[in-house]
Amino acid sequence: MPFAVGLTGGIGSGKTTVAELFAELGAGVVDTDVIARALTGAGQTAVGEIARRFGPQYVTADGALDRARMRKLAFEDARAKRDLESILHPLIRREAERQVANSTAPYVILVVPLLFESGAYQKLVRRVLVVDSDQETRVERVRRRNNLPREEILAIMASQVGQAERLRRADDVIRNDGDLAALEAQVAALHRKYLDLAAES
Ligand code: ATP
Q: What is the pLDDT of residues 93-110, one digit of tens each?
């Protein structure tokens, strides 16, 4: 199994941006959000299971999960959210493990937004890297990117582990409050560290 580092952080902290920088340096990147999208795309088995549980109105004309509709239901109905997760999470976890195992990169960055919340990934990773950013900066980024109302962003944040706990449980931290150059420097330093750790292991 390749040396894997779990990458997590709150919504809008910059996980995807950081993962892309690691990939540019030659790290393998496995992203559970990307896997989730692939598993709910047109004709995927997860879509059939979701349709059986929630009804065909949650499937688009081309056979993919209707994400906007499902997100709305999950947001309003805690039980629906749990059921959706019980269908998707094991599939995502299994595929993530498969991709990590198959990677030929010197080490793998495994992006898991809810790493601390779910617990299912702790055994797969040797270290945890947290991307940290001020709450206001994160709200502003997500508002601009997703056009979500502020209350909805704050509700998502409230459902996630708080920044303090995240930092307490981190092995490494990247601060993402500055510009891209500041981010690149931190990623480059960690890349060297992970290459060393991977070579030792
Ligand atoms: P989510 O949890 O919502 O998937 P994320 O943690 O993956 O978010 P990104 O998608 O990397 O975060 O970043 C959120 C938004 O903020 C993106 O539009 C990204 O381009 C922008 N962004 C991230 N970091 C910076 C930065 N240092 N400077 C400017 N924009 C940034």
A: 999 999 999 999 999 999
* CB-CB neighbours of 60 under 10 Å: 14
- Find where tokens 């150059």 sit: 181
DSSP secondary structure letter of residue 161:
P
Q: How far apart are CA 23 and CA 114, in angstroms?
A: 21
Q: Which residues contact 37 (CB under 8 A, 6 or more apart)?
A: none
pLDDT at 119: 84
Ligand 1: lining residues by beta carbon, under 6 Å: 9, 11-17, 113, 141-142, 145, 176, 179-180, 183
**Residue with the nearest Cα to atom 23 of ligand 1?**
14
Q: What is the rounded CA–CA span in Å between residue 173 and residue 9?
A: 10
Distance in Å, CA 199 to ligand 1 centroid? 30
CA distance 10 to 132: 8
Low-confidence ranges of the chain (pLDDT < 70): none
What's the confidence (pLDDT) of residue 192?
98
Q: Atom 11 in ligand 1: which residue has the minimum CA distance?
A: 14
**pLDDT score recorded for residue 75:** 86
Ligand 1 centroid vs 23 CA: distance in angstroms? 16
